[in-house]
Amino acid sequence: MILGRSERGKPPIEPLTLKILVAGGFGVGKTTLVGAVSEIRPLRTEELLTEAGRPVDDISGVEAKNTTTVAMDFGRITLREDLVLYLFGTPGQERFWFMWDELAEGALGAVVLADTRRLEDCFAAIDYFERRSIPFLVGVNCFEGAARYPADDIRRALDLDDHVPLLMCDARERESVKEVLVGVVQHAMTQAARHRRAVTT
């Protein structure tokens, strides 16, 4: 085999790398989602919840959670030979939101994870991406024991624009998460094409 070339004599494909953010409220499953699909060992910056943080950390609905992301989660997944996604999970707690601007730099799009037990917790993430015109998709993480609602009802509760995709998912399942990530890429591409048409007309 010739160094730097594939077995068939063709130059290796230089993959397109894209940055996707995974955002949402505290305990919604962001770290789990990144870990479910990452083909490398995910970089995690989790710390134990402490008594000192109890006055500012609302764990109602996720009382069993004992760690929190304090900077970011990072993972990578190859969707195709020529397409690689870098995943950045944002911290969910309000006191770490100052990091979002840096993490969002250069992002193609975002997944906003939602939990029907704490639906209001994803409003801040939705507002963040809307105000910055970053394409996003809402993934409803279907936790065991959580009430199931029709997608249209959840869309109305979140007051989503018609063009924003909403998918049911399981953040623990690789194939389910892959569908969400493919959906983000497709949505971002559609939005970019729509913007180009608007500029040229």
Automatic annotation (TrEMBL):
Keywords in alphabetical order: ATP-binding, GTP-binding, Hydrolase, Nucleotide-binding
Annotated CDD domains: Ras_like_GTPase
UniProt-recorded name of the protein: ATP-binding protein
InterPro entries in UniProt: Gliding_Motility_GTPase, Gpn, P-loop_NTPase
GO MF terms held by the record: ATP binding
UniProt similarity note: Belongs to the GPN-loop GTPase family.
Source lineage: Bacteria, Bacillati, Actinomycetota, Actinomycetes, Kitasatosporales
Organism, scientific name: Streptomyces viridosporus T7A
